[in-house]
Amino acid sequence: MRRVSRRTFLGALGGAGLGAAGLGGLAGCGRLPERAGELLAGAAPLPEPFTVPLPIPEVARPVSPGRYEVTQRVAAVEILPGLRTEVWGYGGAFPGPTFELRRGTPVTITVRNELPVPTSTHLHGGVTPPDSDGYPTDLVVPAGHSSHHSHPGEVLHPVTKDYRYPVEQRAATLWYHDHRMDFTAPQVWRGLAGMALVRDDEEDALPLPGGERELPLMICDRSFDEDGSFRYPDGGHHGGAALDAEYLEGVEGDVILVNGAPWPVAEVSATRHRLRLLNASNARRYRLRLSPGGRFTQIGSDSGLLAAPVAHDELPISPGERYDVVVDFSAYPVGTAVTLVNTLADGPAGNVMRFVVTSRGRDDSAVPPVLSRPPDRPRPVATRTFDFRRTDDAWTINGLRYRPGAPLARPRLGTAEVWRLTGDFHHPVHVHLAHFQVLARNGRPPAATDAGWKDTVDVRPYEVVDVLARFDGHRGLYMLHCHNLEHEDMAMMADFEVI
Ligand SMILES: [Cu+2]
Asked: Where does the source fall among the domains of life (predicted)?
């Protein structure tokens, strides 16, 4: 079978599918939809919610101080009760192991690829040198894979690659995932994602809940075939086929997973718990609330602790974003079931997971009124606009399809710039290397949930979002892109070069 790139396919399509299924619908209704993808119905019976215990991914163990090895491999795991699902996992696990990193302690992670496809691993939120940043054409190629170059400038590493992370950055909730050119969406869908937590002295000095009361929660949606296998609308020909035109807006699954378990349940004591929320979905956005009521006390954003906590009743979270929050379960009587719900969906996807308050507990933790001293807002030296929209027959940035090695901007190391992000649909914009603050939405102050330093921001249809990005750490080629993974694969990426 001839290899057909997704972008070639989209070119051949002439945009007909997208116009009819997606943006036409948007223009036709008076209200802007909150949904950012097309629901892919599965065929497996949906499990009863809140019956599977919440799994906590294993913490990766170094093979020697500062050195890790992780093998990407195929594994069969039980996700839906009684069925086996083939996953492509870091360490054969989905999610992959959690990496516990320490500011100022560099690590090298050797990724070995035993999958049937090439991969590239991006540490999302990492301040990483360009040759370890998971550039989409910097590929780890499995043994026996035909090594023809399909993209100019492609770099192929046979079987393994050492990714070097200086970890010169503040404590934060990071994650890692596949970033292979044209195939990020199906490869992440099949399991290539995990979390990485950076810790530092500033955070250690705070009396935040920790240990078993600190829960990394990777939220994503998937659809399953009758036999338990993942369903994804590319004909199953991973590595060759294109996405069905119906799903060019993005693929939404009908099963919500947290840490790889469907609508799980966690027993908690009536104490404060720290929840590190990550939306690892391909396209689905969530608006998270607690039912029967309750508040999230946000302590951190994508790129680290806030200066001071912010209370929220609800959290909108788009693909790639993280919220570091504390929930005080002492607000509920023992025996209460507290459900984390998603008010953007009706039906099964309206639930995420459940906490059951099973006992009283001693609680020495606190959320202090001052959390950290984040870096001050620098003065910008330039303003640039990046427009995310469908142009003719592709998802584009400033009207351009992604071309590796052709940077759209050359910011100087150590400076900051205002980047104005606009678009025609929900585009969660992620910037590699550079962290940013949201300055304004449509010229007005940003939402309370935009607080702090971030690396991903939800740009909603026809919205103008101004962010102040600082370019620190490394010179070289990086990228910004839409984190709707189907858009990303469909050319909605651009390079920038830090000079
Ligand atoms: Cu997008």
From this structure: Bacteria
Given this structure, which CATH class describes domain 211-359?
mainly beta
C-alpha 409 – ligand 1 centre gap (Å): 19
Question: Which region, left, alpha or beta, applies to residue 91 given φ > 0 means left and ψ of -120 to 50 means alpha?
Answer: left
Residue 48 has φ and ψ, to the nearest 5°, of -60, 125
- CA 487 to centroid of ligand 1, rounded, Å: 5
Asked whether 356 and 266 are in contact (CB, 8 A), the reply is yes
In the chain, list all ranges with CATH 2.60.40.420.
Answer: 67-204, 211-359, 380-498
| Cα gap 402→382, rounded to integer Å | 23
**Centroid of ligand 1 to alpha carbon of 427 (angstroms):** 4
DSSP 8-state class, residue 317: E
pLDDT band at 241 (very low <50, low <70, confident <90, very high): low
Q: What would the pLDDT profile of 251-280 be if each residue is shown by its tens digit?
A: 999 999 999 999 999 999 999 999 999 999
340, two tokens: 């984390």
Distance 294 CA to ligand 1 centre (A): 32
Question: Would the pLDDT of 131 be above 50?
Answer: yes
Superfamily designation of domain 67-204: Cupredoxins -  blue copper proteins (2.60.40.420)
**CATH class for domain 380-498?**
mainly beta
Distance 274 CA to ligand 1 centre (A): 30
SS3 130: helix
DSSP E strands in 28-125: the ranges are 38-39, 67-77, 85-90, 99-102, 107-113, 121-124
From the CA of 477, how far away is ligand 1's center (Å)? 21
Question: For residue 94, how far is its CA from the centre of ligand 1 (angstroms)?
Answer: 25
Per-residue pLDDT tens digits for 417-431: 999 999 999 999 999
What is the C-alpha to C-alpha distance for residues 235 and 242, in angstroms, rounded to an integer? 8
Q: Are 453 and 436 in contact (CB under 8 A)?
A: yes
Q: How far is the CA of 430 from the centre of ligand 1 (A)?
A: 10
Q: What is the mean pLDDT of residues 288-309?
A: 97
Could you give the CA distance from residue 256 to residue 263 in angstroms, rounded to a whole number?
6
Q: What is the pLDDT of residue 245?
A: 83
Q: Which residues contact 251 (CB under 8 A, 6 or more apart)?
A: 37, 38, 40, 185, 189, 223, 232, 233, 243, 282, 283, 486
105-119 pLDDT, tens digit each:
999 999 999 999 999
